[in-house]
């Protein structure tokens, strides 16, 4: 009997670890495809989700603690102040689904405010970070089932293993701002299908503001954001047999007023040739790779986007300095 159980457990472990290595291989293949295509096109660009391997996720956590980076502490304060009101307006919730959950630190405030929550489904592309955050959260909350889903939230078409029940979506940190308006609309339309009829959705959205506040948040004095950006090149070296000289690229953050977004680039400081998976890419001095956008919205701008994407705005909360907003939406 004991050996039956242990062999079943061992088989379970084997299939779980082989699923994990298949997933890793698929992620590396996608990364390779995105990098090789992105370095060959003009302007050069690599999608921002590839910033988040284990190193990138840890660096992002460091960013959230910077004095210059106001979004995390402001959103946390909004959740502390309005958590009870959010829970009341959200109504009965059985399942909380979080997109780009990261450390799930802010989620604790929402979980504590929601009565009778049964299941938490965090979705994130950064596998080891997600697994560890989910394990910690489950250990802290008796009776809460945590079902982490590894993957790209823009391409999640069903919630594998989710029980039936009323869902609340949570998309914190203004990660929606990392999507273009078109991508954000597609994401919201898909989320409406995923979360289902009459579901609610709580989304943290960074507000438009003065460049005195905005620019340092994306280019801090200690160079943590620069390390986060440059990790894209370090990851290429680690995973794709690249030979980027990290010191000969610089992090650049600029505000594009017409598009209402911070744009982040890696700029070559010299004329140089780089090799990735045996393909050569030449850079002129000053040539850039676009790695990230971070769109900023006024409250009416975001409400208009949500309304055109299958969601009805219910309430929006902002801090007194109007740095950040939290939007509660209902599936239309
Ligand atoms: N919500 C957290 C983390 C924000 S950082 C907070 O507010 O602090 C953005 C998170 O989204 C990271 O954990 C990153 O791994 C994840 N992420 C970014 N793009 C993603 C994508 N396309 N699919 C799934 N996860 C993604
Ligand atoms: C996760 N995301 C919302 C962050 C942002 O503010 O756009 C990522 C980030 N990039 C540099 N600093 C923070």
Folded structure, characterized:
This is Histidine-specific methyltransferase SAM-dependent domain-containing protein. Residues 1-25 are annotated as: Disordered. Keywords: Methyltransferase, Transferase. One of its GO terms (molecular function) is methyltransferase activity. Residues 31-330 form the Histidine-specific methyltransferase SAM-dependent domain. This protein is α/β, with parallel strands linked by helices and 332 residues long. It folds into 2 domains: 2-47 and 237-295, no CATH class; 70-209 and 296-331, Vaccinia Virus protein VP39 (Rossmann fold), CATH 3.40.50. It has helices spanning 2-40, 54-64, 70-90, 107-113, 127-140, 181-195, 211-217, 224-239, 299-307; strands spanning 44-45, 95-99, 119-124, 145-146, 149-150, 167-171, 200-206, 249-256, 261-268, 272-276, 279-283, 288-295, 311-318, 324-331. Strands 2, 3, 4, 5, 6, 7, 13 and 14 form an 8-stranded mixed beta sheet that branches. It has a 4-stranded mixed beta sheet with strand order 1-12-9-8. It has a two-stranded antiparallel sheet with strand order 10-11. The protein is globular, with a radius of gyration of 21 Å. It binds S-adenosyl-L-homocysteine and N,N-dimethyl-L-histidine (AVI). The site of S-adenosyl-L-homocysteine has 20 residues, from α2 and β3.
């Amino acid at each position: 009997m004991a050996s039956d159980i242990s062999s079943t457990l061992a088989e379970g472990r084997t299939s779980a670890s082989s699923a994990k290595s298949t997933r890793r291989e698929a992620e590396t293949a996608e990364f390779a495809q995105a990098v090789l295509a992105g370095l060959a096109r003009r302007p050069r660009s690599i999608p921002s989700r590839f910033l988040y391997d284990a190193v990138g996720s840890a660096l992002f956590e460091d960013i959230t603690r910077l004095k210059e980076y106001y979004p995390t502490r402001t959103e946390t304060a909004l959740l502390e102040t309005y958590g009870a009101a959010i829970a009341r307006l959200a109504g009965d919730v059985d399942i909380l689904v979080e997109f780009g959950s990261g450390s799930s630190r802010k989620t604790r405030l929402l979980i504590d405010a929601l009565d009778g929550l049964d299941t938490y489904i965090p979705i994130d592309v950064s596998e080891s970070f997600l697994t560890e955050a989910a394990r910690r959260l489950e250990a802290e909350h008796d009776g809460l089932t945590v079902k982490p889903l590894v993957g790209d939230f823009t391409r999640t078409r069903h919630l594998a293993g989710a029980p039936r029940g009323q869902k609340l979506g949570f998309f914190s940190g203004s990660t929606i701002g990392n999507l273009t308006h078109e991508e954000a609309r597609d994401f919201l339309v898909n989320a409406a299908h995923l979360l289902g009829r009459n579901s609610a959705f709580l989304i943290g959205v960074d507000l438009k503001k003065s460049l005195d506040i905005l620019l340092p948040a994306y280019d801090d004095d200690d160079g943590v954001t620069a390390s986060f950006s440059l990790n894209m090149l370090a990851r290429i070296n680690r995973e794709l047999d690249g030979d980027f000289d990290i010191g000969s690229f610089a992090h650049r953050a600029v505000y594009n007023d017409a598009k209402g977004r911070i744009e982040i680039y890696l700029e070559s400081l010299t004329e140089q040739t780089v090799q990735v998976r045996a393909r050569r890419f030449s850079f002129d001095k000053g040539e850039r790779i676009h790695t990230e956008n971070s769109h900023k919205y006024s409250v009416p701008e975001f409400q208009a986007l949500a309304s055109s994407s299958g969601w009805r705005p219910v309430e929006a909360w902002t801090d007194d300095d109007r740095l950040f907003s939290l939007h509660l939406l209902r599936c239309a």
